[in-house]
Specification:
single chain; alpha/beta; 8 helices; 14% strand; globular
Length: 270
């Protein structure tokens, strides 16, 4: 039982690994003994994270990727298998939003730019489906593996403004439950698929939306705090325990679930 939550020597692939949340998760899992593969578009940041992990005695590598390009992902997989011989876990953390896929407070639905709406759907939803299709292959051969997708509070609650992002994240939650059954029925109980739904965490993408230059909360940030029983934003490292649980043997009978980490935001009621 002492090793129930162990991720030691597991090869963990993280798409979107150069973001604020991905970085925190990568560093934590490396400290716990995992071999972390960071996939992202920002080589400078990715190599910086790898150096940080290795300076602390951990094992990591960075690969430039494009979660919407199957050929690039296949090459990533080939490089990973050459280095480590297996893939034990995939964290689909890549995603994002675009201004045209949102509706400003002074605007309305007719201002939505369908082209950008589609791009947000592709980045978040297709950008989860395609890496899953690629990195599931060695898991099937191994008869073991875990996949953790990144959903959102926007998948549970009809938040204002974020039309494209919310639709994509709701799709990710649905895809997660679909895949949990698909892989268990077709490839056995050794492969599990779950998702994590973070509440509000300050990242590069939402910082200017939720906070002012002086660090105080914007009106939207204040709305978030008002509806969060803990009365604060989450800290990136507070996702790490749930992630570790979902990729460890501690969750060996858990599949098809969306784990909420939100300080109570999703259950708040007036």
């Amino acid at each position: 039982m002492a090793n129930l939550f162990s991720v030691k020597d597991k090869v963990v692939v993280i798409t979107g690994g150069t973001g604020v949340l991905g970085r925190a998760i990568a560093c934590h899992l490396a400290e716990e003994g995992a071999k972390v593969v960071i996939l992202g578009r920002k080589a400078e940041v990715g190599n910086e994270i790898v150096a940080e992990i290795k300076n602390k005695g951990g094992e990591a590598m960075f690969l430039v990727t494009n979660v919407l390009d199957a050929a690039v992902l296949e090459q990533n997989l080939s490089d990973i298998l050459q280095a480590y011989g297996r893939v034990d876990a995939l964290l689909n953390a890549a995603g994002g939003n675009m201004p045209g896929a949102t509706i400003a407070p002074t605007g309305n639905f007719f201002d939505l730019k369908v082209e950008e709406f589609q791009k947000v759907l592709e980045l978040n939803l297709t950008g989860t489906v395609l890496p899953t299709q690629i990195f599931l292959k060695p898991m099937v051969q191994q008869h073991s593996g875990t996949i953790v997708n990144f959903s959102s509070m926007a998948a549970f609650r009809p938040m204002t403004r974020v039309a494209g992002y919310a639709a994509a994240k709701a799709g990710i939650s649905n895809f997660t439950t679909f895949m949990a059954t698909e892989v268990a029925k077709k490839f056995g109980e050794g492969i599990r698929v779950n998702a994590i739904a973070p509440g509000f965490f300050l990242t590069e993408q939402n910082r200017s939306l939720l906070t002012n230059p002086d660090g105080t909360y914007t009106e939207r940030g204040q709305d978030v705090i008002r509806q969060t029983p803990f009365g604060r934003m989450g800290r990136a490292e507070e996702l790490c325990g749930t992630i570790q649980y979902l990729i460890s043997d501690a969750s060996s009978f858990v599949t098809g679930t969306v784990a909420v980490v939100d300080g109570g935001f999703n259950v708040f009621a007036m």
